[in-house]
Here is the input.
Amino acid sequence: MKRYQSSVISDVAFLLLLIICFVCVVFTAVDPELYIQNFIFLNVAFLISVITYFSNLTVGLILNFVFIFGCGTFTLYQSIVEGVVLGGQSYFWLIITPLLTGVTWALTRANKQLQEEKEQLQRENASLATMDVNTNLKNNLSFQKDATVFMALSTRFKIPVTLLIISVRYWDEIRRMTSEEEMTSAMYDISTISQTSIRTNDSLYIFDKDNPTWGLILFTDREGANVVIDRLTQNIINLNNGEYGDKYKVELNLKIGAVEYDPESIPTPLDFIVEAKKQLEYDV
Here is the structure.
């Protein structure tokens, strides 16, 4: 409801701002004899509005008081010294300038509220999202939720669970030699290969997109994980030499670390990742 109100206020304020600007321009041009005077007042009114947009309402009101005082002094001078008869144009700018400032402030406030609500929604979406939008893989948050269940099942039913951590060897160097599109394509291809190299009851996750790192939870022991590692290695060789042989300028190679779950040494999902990454360092 609050988001809807901010949107309505923003739309109404924008329309009022257009109408006021149109009225100001017409009023400035309607009387050729006062064109210079009205043009100066018009610019001052717009200047106050711009300052209000980038500051706050208090500054805008102070500038409006100064403008009204100056405009009133000028009008009084014309009436007493020069004998000019006061007309409607003498009061127009005294009314329209504060109105223009108020509309500008309402538009600014509504837009800022919409921006804050957008940023809040983005933060909430990032904190709640369990899927990566580019690869459609589960992310780190999803892994922590799933791993808690898998670790509990392993402890209760004595089912071996092994975590594989996969990264691309020399990724920083590869990034400097290829385009961003090729890097995105490489991540997608490696994700696809990893997904096809495991059974349907195993789970694939992506932990890091900047320095691509994947995680595989396998319902097998450490020796059984070697079968998956060999399959992944062979599929990457096929990627480099097979139908994708000319797709990338450089050869892709993986670093793979694996660790079997042990309730005593791995109490949390984060510890599971840390232990698997330690094994990744030994794959040279």
Remarks:
- The radius of gyration is 33 Å.
- Residues 140-280 form a domain with the Alpha-Beta Plaits fold (CATH 3.30.70.270).
- The CA atoms of residues 32 and 200 lie 81 Å apart.
- The first helix runs from residue 2 to 30.
